[in-house]
Protein 1
Amino acid sequence: MTEARRRNSRGSGPELRRELLDAAIEALLEPQPLPLPSLRAIARKCGVSASAVYMHFPSQDALELTIATELFEQLRQHLDAGDIYGAPPRERLYALTTAFVGWALKHPGAYQMLFERADPHVESGTGPGLDLLDRVADLLQTGDDAARRLIAMRIWAGLHGVASLHIHKQSAPWQETPLDAAWSIVASQFDSAQNQRLG
């Protein structure tokens, strides 16, 4: 597509439609940012001036990082409350799966904030919330740390897929509950890892 297109001649509507569609699809080649409340919107909601907000959050990035940290802490507390400490690892993993999926579906906007947007403010492999991987990895009784984290990442990916699809595709022809779908994926990964250890 040319950088400066000339005005279409009469009768070139289909060509323009195609060009517009191609431009829109090209724009979607990069991840799209999830719009979050701006500092000014937060100020209006609290009935204060924008300058008052800047005293506590000097930038939008600072606000977003603080929000993410707070939401991860809320999720962490929810998982703590649902965990069955002292139970066998498989039972604990089911309890954590139940808690994770339940929190995601009850807080879809917060879930999108945490798991459906890029983290431009952190380096790869760092940032709030990544300790959730360790929580799952610690339940696995196979391999070294790298192997356990690999399985934990697969479990996380499966959980995310189920949660995200149920948030955005509620009219899909689901044949099982979100928890049943999530547990079938999680249990498969867990059992496979344990069988490899025993084999």
Protein 2
Amino acid sequence: MKKVLLTGANGFFASRFYTYYKNKYEILPLGHSDLDITNENKTLEIVRVFKPDYVVHAAAVADTGSCEKNPELSYEINVKGSINIAKACSLAKSKLIYLSSDQIFNGNNESGPYDELHFPTPNTVYGDHKLKTEDELKGILDELWILRFTWLFGFPEKNCKVSSNILWNVVSAVLKDKRIKLPENEFRGMTYVYDLIENFHKIFNLPYGTYHTGSENNMSTYDIAFFILKEMRLDHKAGIYLEKDTERFKTHDRDLRISNSKSKHFDIIFPKTEDGIKNCLKDFNY
């Protein structure tokens, strides 16, 4: 049985990854209380002792607002902490899967969708630090996969963290009888978390490199929210629960759309965001 060390184990993706694969791999799930990745010596020691075949590095400060308010903390965890993980992998001869983000394209002026050869121009602290980390890790070890995630979505589950995501935000608005405001000038990939997790074992067989990992989508954030209501047969109440934000990103669309054609070439298939939403609603009987 292959051994996997999982950082950020209490997060939205990692908590579900552990539950899904715990009987397929010997997984050591580490949250912040188990491992402070900014502590280089401790990080090196834990990886050395466990000797994982793979390290799935999901630990990060992922809230973009928090990163903007505290860039020093973001750099310490998102960059330096990741460097410590890579050093540990290099010494232990472990392969590293680093979870990056589509937000490295947040400042690009040209329109997406972007492939892996497209030059990214981040304009946020979080995006900048994610891209900087990608470059740093490439200089430390060769046995490295960089996965650029899109915005993940899913429902709350027992023993799993739920983060703000498009599907749960819309469903919560309905349940709480509240109205949410969503931009019509934002376009980004949104991926059902289990469409990603069910494909994840295939990543271990890919050639090392960078991959855009998630669903493609050409609909605006507002239109996706409307689509969710439509699939729940509540589109007639869209005026109650949804407000179209026409001012945000008015002068220039926020375009984070990715192309997953490279992953598709290796038989890692992600449905479009609309189909991912249908899959999720069906899985949870909504």
